[in-house]
Amino acid sequence: MSDARTEHRRGRVRLTVQDAAGRPLPGAEVEVAQVRHAFGFGNIGFDFLPLVGGPAPEGADEVEAFGTAEGIPLPVLEEAYLGLFGQTTLPFYWGRYEPRRGAPDAERLRRTAQWFADRGVTVKGHPLMWHTVTPAWQAELPLDEVESLQRARSRGLTADFAGLIDVWDAINEAVIMPVFDNGANRITDLAAQNGRLATVRLAFEEARAGNPSATLLINDFDLSPAYERLIEEVLEAGIRVDAIGLQTHMHKGYRGEEAVTGILDRFARFGLPLHMTETTLVSGHLMPSHIEDLNDYRIPEWPTTEEGEARQAEELVRHYRSLVEHPSVQVVNYWGLTDAGSWLGAPCGLLRADGSKKPGYEALRGLIRGEWWLAPTTMRADGDGVVEVEGFAGDYRVAQGGDEAGFAVPTGESTAAVRLGA
């Protein structure tokens, strides 16, 4: 029985099963199974870079990283990742992507992106413009040169990776960008000189020029009215934004359904898809509530605990249910497959540092590949060769013997036909 709270995610297809010549197959016994969700369930793919793409370029290790699952074999990571996720986010932080001027990490990122794409995973790049993790060689450059380089980067990356990576965070954390003090950082200086609106325009227009069909996001952790005002200004200025990115790193504890839904409702008013771009829930002790900037909490060890893992599993289910139930949310991207090398050393991964699955992984699997998934099911066509398929919107397959064909289940009621043996 379907849940009314997720009915807007579901579809019902009257599927006519035909032979290779297009004739219906009355009474045919077929197997139907879901292949992919239309809703975007994702995670970061940072852990795969060294395993698939190869070693980082010279100088990259001098810059902060946000996830490297050292010691966990690729087959373990692959099985866990593909067992849940159909989308991934790969890191294009300027300081690590181009630690030496003119020597970008393009081929390593390309190999990793292709590895995911070959397995049916949609790849997103993060971020094209940000004021953190910037190259050290940029520190003394004049602002006009910095602007020229940023324009070339935003335009060049979307163009060079078009067809492989067509989703990008065009700009990250623009609310704080003009005033953020983190040392020698010319992107903040550029934003302070030009203002937020001009900076956002630069980011989107250059990225759009590189790949006109790309999906481009504005993304921020500041979910206050300041972000709403910036989005209002951006849209009123005619800047095309394809989706709004909302970060929810909950190292200090789950905010609760009421608080999260309130945030979603505030940003849904813009009529754009909402992407929960960076979501975390910890499975150890919670970060002290008085910490304002999460980056200020750095401790030698932050272990996962049995109690914390049980809490994380429960909260993941609550959080994901509330997100899937909200009609404006299109993507949920978790920020950490494993605890190995996780951001701030927090135990926010779905796998422990040794690669074993936490209860949170299994809890999410019960939703994404259980309650919200159609497992292989045998069906018999009626006298007209029709089977009725109901499930969460996405891609499906139908098979008989050695023949199979794919079809889509959109939301709502629809009809379709497939040919087997064609």
UniProtKB/TrEMBL annotation:
TM segment ranges: none
EC number: 3.2.1.8
InterPro entries listed in its UniProt record: GH, GH10, GH10_dom
Catalytic activity: Endohydrolysis of (1->4)-beta-D-xylosidic linkages in xylans
Domain of life assignment: Bacteria
Keywords: Carbohydrate metabolism, Glycosidase, Hydrolase, Polysaccharide degradation, Signal, Xylan degradation
Residues of the GH10 domain: 71-367
Enzyme class: hydrolase
Pfam families in alphabetical order: Glyco_hydro_10 (PF00331)
SUPFAM superfamilies attached to this UniProt entry: (Trans)glycosidases
Entry's family note: Belongs to the glycosyl hydrolase 10 (cellulase F) family.
The protein's name: Beta-xylanase
